[in-house]
Each structure stands twice: as C-alpha cells, then as structure tokens.
Design goal:
It is built from 12 helices and 13 strands. The protein is of the alpha/beta class. A 7-stranded parallel sheet has the order 3-2-1-4-5-6-11, sandwiched between helices. It has a two-stranded parallel sheet with strand order 7-10. The longest helix is centred in the N-terminal third of the chain and has 22 residues. InterPro entries: NAD(P)-bd_dom_sf, RmlD-like-bd.
C-alpha cells in the first residue's frame, strides 16, 4: 500500500482527502499543530514557514506521494500580507519539492483557476496565465517552482466545493446554510467557474497519480455556472427556496474588480487522461446532497 502525506490536513481539502484516502492508501495528515484526527492513519505536525520542519517531516515519513494542499488561500489575507502569502504559497512549495526529490516522492500541488484573469473563461493548460491577485500570483509562482525543482510533479489547477470542517468554507455551504435559515442572499451572475465536487476532485487526483501523470492538468466540472445559477441549483437539489437568492452583478455588489470574471477551466485534457466523462456541477451538487449524512460528519470538527 502506498503512503500519502497530505499537508493542510485539517483544512477543507485536507479533511476531505483524509476521508477519501481511508482504506485506499496509508495516509499521513500533516497539521500545523498536532491534531487528534481519525481521518488519517497517522498525524504529524509541520510548520510550513520552516524549511527544516518540512525536510524533517518528509524524511521521517518517507511518503510515496505528497499532496500539498496547505496554502494561504484567502484573497483578502494574501492582499493584506503578501510576504506571508509568498512564504506559505511559494517558499514552502520549494522546500517540499526539494524534500520530495530527496526521498523519491511524487508531489501533487493543489493550484487554482485564479492563475488566470477571468477575461474569457474555458481556459486550457496551454493558455497564458495572468493572475489578478496576490493569491493567484503566489500560487502560480508555486507551480513554477515545483516544476523547476522536481521532475515528478502533478499540478492540479482547480476550483472545488463540498463539505468543510468549519461548515462555512464552501460556496455549497454558503447557500445551504443561508437558505435553510430563510436568509435572503445574493448570487453573482457575472462570476463564473467550473467548480468540481471535492470528492470527485480527489478521485481524479488519485487516478492521475496512479497513472503516473505529470505536469499541469485542469481539474474542474465539465460545465460552467455563475454563482447565482449554482445557488439556484443548490436550492433545487436540497428542496430550498430559490426565491431567496437575488441575482446581482459584481459591480452592484461592490466587487467589480475582483469578482466579475469567467474563470472556467477547459477539462478536455482531464477527460482524456482519466478516460471517462467528467461530472457536471449539477451532478456534483447531487453527490454532495447524497453525502451530507456520510462525508460531512466525518470531515466536520477537524480544524487546523
């Protein structure tokens, strides 16, 4: 059984990774501070701000695969502290890539659709990048560093949704929580993504690693939806009131610069690599609905 080390194990993606990998691999969760999580077979602490901590953990665990999911992912936090964003999103990736080289581990780097500017959407892996934020810039620099340092790297550019440890990290949870409480909310009609259900994302990564795939692959849903239409679909699937969602533009919402974008990803290469059709966002929302009583309770409560 192969051994997988997952950084950011207490975060949104990391906790879901623990749930997905259970029984498939020997899983090791790397937390900022050691956590009593049953999601992973083994838990370790790692300080991604420290190169020595990264090397020590990777050398001690000696994994076959390292999934680097930990990041400073908030656009606002990155804008307010670009030095920290550089440290967490770029420098830690350099250390992990070198550590993976030392032990012969494959590195999976979780990246983002925000490496593009969102001016047109349907981006392929060959399209020129043009980040519109510090977050996107540092994630792109992390990509470039990983590819330059280590030969066995899979760059997973993605946007995803699902159930998170805090219950508030996902666009799915935003709409479910608000609509269940009868709260009126807004949904942007001019912010478009191809968000993939996180468990489908993990399945894709698992299969791509198994196939030995390297380089950049766009991992998204097979269709694009605006935030508004995503919310309407959530309401339909969960039996909630879609009339509580008001369609607005990002300009009206005061976020024209950062939110009025089409960041959808072209998934033709993903489909070719996996040899299967890619789920739509509607299918992912239905899967999340089915998983609410199974996956959600497992990931809830494990916070980094």
């Amino acid at each position: 059984m192969t051994k997988w080390l997952v950084t950011g194990a207490g975060g949104f993606f990391g906790a879901n990774a623990g749930a997905f990998l259970n029984g498939r691999v020997e899983s090791v969760g790397a937390f900022r501070s050691l956590a009593a999580s049953s999601l992973f077979g083994t838990n370790v602490s790692i300080d991604l701000r420290s190169g020595s901590s990264i090397y020590e953990v990777v050398d001690a665990v000696r994994p076959d695969v390292v999934v680097h999911a930990a990041a400073l992912a908030s656009h606002e936090a990155c804008e307010s502290d670009p030095a920290l964003a550089q440290l967490v999103n770029v420098e830690s990736t350099k250390h992990l890539a070198r550590a993976c080289t030392d032990v012969g581990a494959k590195l999976v780097y979780l990246s983002t659709d925000a490496v593009f500017d969102g001016s047109r959407g349907n981006y392929t892996e060959k399209d020129a990048t043009n980040p519109f934020s510090v977050y996107g810039t540092t994630k792109l620099l992390g990509e470039q560093a990983a590819l330059a340092i280590h030969e066995d790297v899979l760059i997973a550019r993605t946007n995803f949704f699902g159930w998170s440890p805090s219950g508030t990290r996902s666009i799915l949870e935003f709409f479910v929580n608000a609509l269940r409480s009868g709260q009126q909310v807004s949904g942007y009609t001019d912010f478009v993504v191809s968000s993939l259900y996180v468990q489908d994302l993990l399945s894709a990564i698992y299969d791509l690693v198994g196939s030995g795939r390297r380089g950049v692959v766009h991992l998204g849903a097979s269709n694009a939806l605006s935030k508004y239409h995503f919310g309407v679909q959530v309401a339909s699937q969960f039996g909630l009131d879609a009339e509580l969602i008001s369609p607005v533009t990002a300009a009206v919402g005061g976020h024209a610069n950062s939110r009025a974008r089409d960041l959808s990803l072209n998934t033709s290469l993903m489909e070719s690599c996996l040899g299967r059709s890619i789920p739509t966002q509607e299918f992912g929302i239905a899967s999340a609905y089915d998983d609410e009583s199974a996956v959600a309770p497992r990931v809830t409560g494990f916070r980094e």
